[in-house]
Amino acid sequence: MSQEIAVIGSPDFTTGFRLAGVRKFENVPEDEKDDALDEAVMRTLEDDDVGIVVMHDDDMAHLSRSAREAVEGSIEPVLVTLGGGAGSGGLREQIKRAIGIDLMEED
Amino acid sequence: MAEDVKPTRKNLMAIEDRIELSERGHDTLEQKRDGLIMEFMDILDQAQDIREDLDANYETAQRKINMARAMEGDVAVRGAAAALKEHPEITTQSKNIMGVVVPQIESSRVRKSLDQRGYGLLGSSARIDEAADAYEELLESIILAAEVETAMKKMLTEIETTKRRVNALEFKLLPDLHENKEYIEQKLEEQEREEIFRLKKIKAKKEEEESEAAATEAESELEVVEVGD
């Protein structure tokens, strides 16, 4: 089954991806993020046609705890965050929990 | 816990079987956990490289689109973005690493030539083309990162589950079984000692009775002899 890539974020963030042909996007203006971002994320997660969700790492802070956990733990679609360096999107925490050591510590 | 089992030889044998099975399971799971961690380390190296590329691509893409916005205006960039007709698609296949099904994502129509973009050659500028190019490259690395990071997430979940199983066997199930085994062994030994003691008692009593009977018999015989005289 072929799927698509979805982008969630401010209009500035999503425009570039639309230029590369991404059709599924959720524009959430900067000042509405606290209220509207949760809903946008949950809507995207429920969309079966979406295989990858792209978000900016800073936007993760605007999410409520449950939405954050849902999107970080989700495998289909999988979340890729930009701008947060390695181990963003909860991966680093999960590694610490599963292996017991922080393998992503920056040298 | 130990008091829950009946101290019988049958139970002891059953517990010994369970201990053997649990120990075998524990060893196997431990090997699985170590194998998974080794596989995970390989993927981790790969993931860190991909992440670096991803961050670099993101920075370039951002710089290029900012440039396009500054030179052409926000409206032109948005207009071009809205005109795109070809959409990148991804198809997912799966691969099995030590029992963990990880995805292999293949993409199509990420890279597009100028005429495939749909916003026309005359209506846009080279800056917008460059930004679109950079974002297409960024999408490619996002797809790679998604593949590797999903594999990592799945493997981490499996490592966690395996680790919990190993620990449950090592620190809960096996000690409990050993405790039960010891309890039954001690109880059985105690029963055996009691049995020996009881037998000894019975033997002593029997001997006493026998000697008493012999004494009375001897006495009666003596009396008979005396009367006979």
TrEMBL record, chain A:
GO cellular component: plasma membrane
Keyword Membrane: yes
Superkingdom, natural source: Archaea
A GO BP entry: proton motive force-driven plasma membrane ATP synthesis
GO molecular function: ATP binding; proton-transporting ATP synthase activity, rotational mechanism
Membrane topology: Peripheral membrane protein
Keywords on record: ATP synthesis, Cell membrane, Hydrogen ion transport, Ion transport, Membrane, Transport
Record-linked InterPro entries: ATPase_V1-cplx_f_g_su, ATPase_V1-cplx_fsu_bac/arc, ATPase_V1_fsu_sf
Record bears the keyword Hydrolase: no
Subcellular location: Cell membrane
Subunit-structure text: Has multiple subunits with at least A(3), B(3), C, D, E, F, H, I and proteolipid K(x).
UniProt family annotation: Belongs to the V-ATPase F subunit family.
Function: Component of the A-type ATP synthase that produces ATP from ADP in the presence of a proton gradient across the membrane.
Protein's recorded name: A-type ATP synthase subunit F
Source organism (scientific name): Haloplanus ruber
Gene it is expressed from: atpF
UniProtKB/TrEMBL annotation, chain B:
GO molecular-function term, one example from the UniProt record: ATP binding
Biased composition range(s): Acidic residues: 218-229
Subcellular location field: Cell membrane
Alphabetical keyword list: ATP synthesis, Cell membrane, Coiled coil, Hydrogen ion transport, Ion transport, Membrane, Transport
Membrane topology: Peripheral membrane protein
Domain of life where this protein originates: Archaea
Gene3D superfamilies in UniProt: 1.10.287.3240
Assembly, per entry: Has multiple subunits with at least A(3), B(3), C, D, E, F, H, I and proteolipid K(x).
Protein name: A-type ATP synthase subunit D
